[in-house]
């Protein structure tokens, strides 16, 4: 378990390094390695892949909803304000 955590940390560090260096090939390779290790960690923890992808889908939907609610409507509202003014960019 600790070994997987160390491997994940090392691979994530390599991804960050590749991102900073703007090395797309290394970032792609490192990202795949991170995903492989995450899959192993999820399996070790008894978490199904589908659970993680469902959570990702929920977060993306929420983010898209917040974006849509924050967009100005085509109609002018009274006092010139939008009905919904979502200011948070934080996702749960």
Uncertain regions spanning at least 5 consecutive residues = none
Helix content: 55-70%
Biggest beta sheet attributes: none
Cα distance, first to last residue? 27 Å
Q: Structural class, from helix and strand content? A: mainly alpha
Instruction: Characterize the overall form.
Output: flat
According to DSSP, the number of beta strands is 0
Quaternary status? single chain
What is the typical, i.e. mean, pLDDT?
A: 85
Could you write a compact summary of the structure shown?
With 92 residues, the protein is an all-alpha fold. Helix content is 68%, strand content 0%.
Could you characterize the architecture of this molecule?
The structure is a single chain. This protein has helices spanning 2-20, 24-45, 49-70. By secondary structure, it is mostly helical. The protein folds into two domains: 1-47; 48-92, no CATH class. α1 runs antiparallel to α2. The longest helix is centred in the middle third of the chain and has 22 residues, at 24-45. It is flat and about 50 Å long. The chain starts with a helix and ends in a 22-residue tail after the last helix. The mean pLDDT is 85.
Describe the secondary structure blueprint for this structure:
Layout: H1 2-20, H2 24-45, H3 49-70
Helix pairs in contact: 1-2
Keywords summarizing the entry:
92 residues, mainly alpha, 3 helices, 68% helix, 0% strand, flat
């Amino acid at each position: 378990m600790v070994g997987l955590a160390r491997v994940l940390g090392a691979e994530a560090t390599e991804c960050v390094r590749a991102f900073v260096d703007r090395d797309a090939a290394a970032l792609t390779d490192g990202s795949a390695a991170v995903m492989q290790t995450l899959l192993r960690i999820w399996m070790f923890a008894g978490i199904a892949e589908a659970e993680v992808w469902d959570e990702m889908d929920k977060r993306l939907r929420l983010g898209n909803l917040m974006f849509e609610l924050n967009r100005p409507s085509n109609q002018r509202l009274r006092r010139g304000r939008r009905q919904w003014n979502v200011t948070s960019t934080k996702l749960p």
